[in-house]
Amino acid sequence: MSDATAGSESRTADRITVYSDYVCPFCYLGRRSLSEYQSEREAELQIDWHPFDLRSGKRNPDATIDHDADDGKDDAYYEQAKQNVRKLREKYGAEEMAVELATDVDSLPAQLVSVAVREQYDYGTWLDFDEGVFEALWHDERDIGSADVLVDIAEDVGVDGDFVRDALDDDERRAALEAQFREAQQQGVTGVPTFAFEGHAARGAVPPEQIERLVEGT
Question: What's the pLDDT tens digit per position in 157-207?
Fold first, then answer.
């Protein structure tokens, strides 16, 4: 499908902006909540995804992660995060979620490929890839920072493996992705997931009824 056709498709449906990072468990859980709302909604609601880098405070100039860098998050912070994940996992029926936190995983490669797929393929293919990345990490405990893993996910949804490897090696795409990270921060996004619709926003893995109020204005 051409870019023009894909753009035309997108304009026929309502769109909710979602800022997220694949390594954020609350982004996965927030998407579960969004999917529940979408399934009950009569009109189609597409996702206008914007990448966000949770590792920005630990990222070196060469884009690698310094896991020893102090980002202000201590053991107590992570323990509380785990407890919150467990509560929401039960609330949103996500018992198949095998991982609570993914602090050692770098999502930058996955986000790089996801942006490329969104630009070059139709919305449905991008959505399948996007959901495949979430499932690979949170269900199957796979390293979504691995090129081989990303190729597997992509080929499962009809994306050519060479396209994935080319995207990962494309310095211009990487620079453009980093610009999107900065843009999100400039727009006031300080945490993910953040859902935005027509000038209003909700942050966190909010329940479906809160997403409904955001979108429907009720």
Answer: 999 999 999 999 999 999 999 999 999 999 999 999 999 999 999 999 999
Q: What is the pLDDT of residues 25-53, one digit of tens each?
A: 999 999 999 999 999 999 999 999 999 99
Q: Give 195-204 contacts, CB < 8 A, sequence gap 24+.
A: 195/16, 195/17, 195/18, 195/30, 195/34, 196/16, 196/17, 196/18, 196/19, 197/16, 197/17, 204/26, 204/30
Whichever domain contains 34, its CATH number is 3.40.30.10
Q: Which domain holds residue 20?
A: 3-216
Number of domains observed in the structure of the chain = 1
